[in-house]
Backbone:
């Protein structure tokens, strides 16, 4: 490892570090093979490996054997189809004799998954003979499931025939495109994930640990740590010397170098297949190419809001007409909306074409460019100081305008404030595009002093490392008798209770108004007092009464989801109660930062009104009726057309927010990096909907369109990664299943439905999101 990369790896934090992964390029037909000298156990063994996805939607294999066209074993994605489900199967005479195919899909290319797959046909319980675990949690829902016969020998894998990693061979050519790390095979033992990983004590996230057990006859451990040759890269480090032969793997320096620093303990930025338009990605999301008219854009998996960063790209230029843009763009940039230099998407970009253009733009203004127009195989460079907004562009080791990023001088330009995402644009001939390097392999040129590679180890440490200490979602079944929830990591100040199985109220209780005093989000009713509702806020949860009424807090056999928040400046949440005075005024809050979102509710009296929301994406001139399926409205009598500050928010004379002598409650949230996000996106009416970067893996998401549709709420307590069953703030409806929804990912979410409720063409959608894990630590979903 070079000295440069040793520096760039510093500070990753985990106690057990995985140093390398191996990139499998499907475009180069990459795979590993080994033929055991003799067979091992055919009834009991365990696979454990970490993987990061490259291409999505394709049939891909991680491990396979095929003794002939009708007998085969496979473990990988969609061996039967390209549906992104994980398959673990055996077949004899072309009949599947054992199989587990997960119900859920795996479409997160931005972080790492840990997979443990176990065969144990000696197990007396049929359902336990094939087991799959993802990130330490057992998969229990399958779209296809066939249990093997007890004590049967599953011939194929672990016999004295060619075994494969990264492809289905010899009959099928289903190549893995992505990364593998810490690949274990344990011959003769049925193990659990705890042999290979554990929950991190600080973050709660599943993390790798060193395996300390035995391996068995054909067991192996592939760390891919020796890149001296294509032979040594496949060496087994278990002590068994069960080495693997590589094919299509390169250890030649440059864009084909396949030993990566991208690992589960130091996750690197790649190009994002969920945030692209008319672009073909390859080489495990490190190369992009196009072959049609513009715009053809792809953004990366990391958005930068602080720190100093450096990255490179090799230029791929075909013959004929072409255009390139090497840039950073703001959140407002639409991958289908044009090139970087679109005036509505300010940032910084270097553009050039096959004719004469060779220009650098910053904030859509042309700036001095002293660099030659890049040609095929040239290296373009970018340094970005997110704290100052300064950007430097370079070519083959020379900075534009004699720039000095290390000294902070002669920058190409300075961008306006806001987070920025590395973005690539190209159009023209089929080979036109880039091969990018964010530091997962050696840079071609030495990064400027103080500038870092784009990886999670180098991301700033979030103020909240374990979000479940401040916000969480809990599932339970009603009892109709006194009960308690004691699974939270905090004493809640706001608890929101909703039945999943029945049409009951959305009941909200908060510590400012006190236990037993509820509000309902789907109507304008005044608050109520019910001694049988939520009866106490406890150090690790809350107590519930018998709920003899029809309010729906604890009805016997009903299933529930409860959402809870802790108040404080650290999590950016404040509860404010005030008495109206009928005149323009300000109300103090204790966030210490300007709220990004707040809702106000008239608590009492015969004129109790709806819930009214301010959201920073709409601005202070508009409001949303939280309890209605309506769009936004303009009205200066609500917020006085005045944005909130770090100490106050403004209310006007409207009776909904400020009736004289009437009581109100307001819930206010500020944005906390890595924990909460309040933003917007524009719909495109496609099943390939917008990708939204949050900077964390969400636990809870609310989406509301600026149109006459209901807001949707999703959470990962009810839904793991493919969220299709929303609940509604403005309706008492039970949980519903919809055709599509959103994918909840390690760094945000992806809209997968073309319906206008979350993705109408040109419609603005606001969202609120709270974290399950900051992206710095998150696992793929």
Residues:
């Amino acid at each position: 490892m070079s000295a440069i990369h040793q520096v760039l790896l510093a500070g990753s934090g985990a106690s057990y570090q995985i140093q390398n992964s191996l990139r499998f390029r499907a475009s180069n037909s990459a795979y590993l093979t080994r033929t055991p000298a003799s067979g091992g156990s055919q009834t009991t063994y365990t696979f454990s490996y970490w993987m990061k996805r490259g291409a999505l939607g394709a049939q891909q294999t991680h491990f396979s054997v095929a003794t002939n066209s009708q007998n085969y074993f496979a473990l990988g994605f969609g061996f039967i189809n390209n549906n992104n489900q994980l398959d673990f199967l055996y077949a004899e005479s072309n009949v599947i004799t054992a199989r587990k195919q997960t119900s859920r899909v795996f479409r997160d290319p931005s972080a790492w998954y840990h997979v443990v797959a176990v065969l144990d046909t000696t197990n007396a319980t049929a359902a336990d003979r094939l087991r799959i675990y993802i990130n330490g949690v057992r998969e229990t829902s399958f779209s296809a499931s066939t249990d093997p016969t007890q004590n049967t020998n599953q011939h194929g894998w672990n016999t004295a025939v060619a075994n494969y990693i990264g492809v289905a061979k010899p009959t099928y050519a289903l190549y893995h495109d992505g990364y593998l790390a810490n690949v274990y095979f344990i011959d003769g033992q049925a193990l659990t994930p705890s042999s290979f990983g554990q929950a991190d004590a600080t973050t709660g996230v599943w993390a790798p640990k060193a395996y300390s057990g035995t391996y068995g006859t054909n067991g192996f451990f592939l760390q891919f740590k020796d890149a001296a040759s294509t032979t040594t890269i496949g060496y087994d480090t278990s002590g068994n010397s069960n080495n693997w032969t590589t094919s299509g793997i390169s250890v030649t320096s440059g864009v084909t170098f396949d030993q990566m620093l991208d690992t589960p303990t130091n996750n690197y930025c790649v190009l994002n297949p969920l945030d692209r338009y008319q672009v073909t990605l390859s080489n495990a999301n490190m190369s992009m190419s196009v072959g049609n008219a513009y715009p053809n854009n792809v953004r990366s998996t990391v958005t930068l809001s602080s720190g100093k960063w450096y990255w490179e790209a090799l230029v791929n230029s075909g013959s004929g007409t072409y255009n390139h843009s090497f840039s950073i763009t703001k959140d407002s940039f639409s991958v289908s909306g044009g090139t970087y230099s679109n005036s509505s998407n300010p940032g910084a970009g270097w553009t050039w074409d096959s004719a004469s253009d060779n220009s650098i733009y910053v904030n859509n203004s042309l700036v001095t460019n002293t660099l030659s127009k890049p040609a095929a195989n040239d290296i373009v460079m970018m340094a970005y100081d997110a704290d100052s907004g300064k950007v430097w562009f370079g070519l083959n080791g020379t900075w534009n305008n004699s720039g000095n990023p290390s000294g902070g001088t002669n920058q190409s330009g300075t961008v306006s404030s806001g987070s920025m995402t590395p973005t690539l644009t190209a159009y023209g001939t089929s080979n036109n595009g880039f091969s990018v390097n964010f530091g997962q392999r050696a840079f071609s040129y030495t990064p400027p002093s103080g500038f870092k590679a784009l990886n999670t180890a180098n991301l700033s440490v979030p103020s909240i490392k374990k979000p479940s200490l401040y916000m969480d979602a809990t599932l339970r079944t009603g009892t109709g008798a006194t009960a308690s929830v004691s699974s939270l990591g905090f004493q809640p100040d706001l608890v929101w209770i909703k039945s999943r199985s029945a049409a009951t109220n959305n009941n909200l209780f908060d510590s400012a108004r006190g236990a037993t005093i509820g509000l309902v989000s789907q109507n304008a009713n005044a608050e109520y007092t019910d001694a049988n509702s939520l009866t106490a806020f406890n150090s690790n949860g809350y107590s519930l009464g018998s709920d003899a009424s029809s309010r729906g807090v604890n009805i016997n056999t009903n299933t529930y989801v409860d959402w809870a928040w802790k108040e404080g400046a650290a999590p950016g949440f404040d509860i404010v109660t005030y008495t109206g005075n009928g005149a323009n005024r300000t109300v103090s809050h204790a966030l210490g930062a300007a709220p990004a979102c707040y809702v106000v509710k008239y608590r009492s009296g015969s004129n109790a009104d709806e819930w009214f929301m301010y959201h920073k994406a709409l601005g202070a001139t508009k409001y949303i009726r939280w309890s209605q399926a309506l769009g936004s409205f303009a009205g200066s009598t609500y917020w006085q057309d005045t944005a909130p500050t770090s100490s106050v928010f403004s209310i006007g004379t409207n009776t909904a927010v400020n009736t004289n002598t009437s009581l109100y409650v307001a819930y206010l949230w500020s944005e906390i990096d890595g924990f909460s996000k309040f933003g917007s996106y524009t719909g495109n009416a496609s099943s390939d909907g917008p990708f939204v970067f949050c900077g964390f893996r969400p636990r809870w998401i609310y989406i509301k369109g600026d149109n006459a549709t209901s807001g949707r709420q999703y959470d990962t307590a009810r839904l793991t990664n493919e969220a299709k069953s929303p609940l509604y703030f403005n309706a008492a409806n039970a949980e519903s299943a919809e055709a599509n929804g959103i994918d909840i990912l390690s760094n945000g979410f992806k809209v997968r439905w073309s319906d206008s409720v979350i993705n109408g063409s040109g419609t603005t959608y606001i969202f609120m999101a709270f974290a399950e894990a900051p992206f710095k630590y998150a696992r793929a979903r």
Observations:
- The mean pLDDT is 92.
